[in-house]
Known about the structure:
The chain is 58% helix and 0% strand. The protein is mainly α and 99 residues long. The protein has a domain at 17-51.
Amino acid sequence: MMVQSVVMIRKQVQLTEEQDRRLEALAMRSGRSKADLVRRAVDLLLAERVAMPTVEEQRKRALEAIGAFHSGHSDIAVDHDRYLAASYASDGPEAPAPE
């Protein structure tokens, strides 16, 4: 049986008190070390980054979306803040009456 060895590089990271508290609690619940959980989180982040579009790709997508959707409202450019606030406050796209 061949055993594969993995070289570990020691790194120092700074966490907030809240992050450390939650990481400690997760380590206790899962029976894993905090270091193992951090390594797993790094692996997930790196896998996500591979699939994440570059800034240029994001910019291109955003520019392609311009004019592609129609709200039925003619004042979106002027009152976009009110429409956005209304959409977060309710389930509908209707903006509140002007103040």
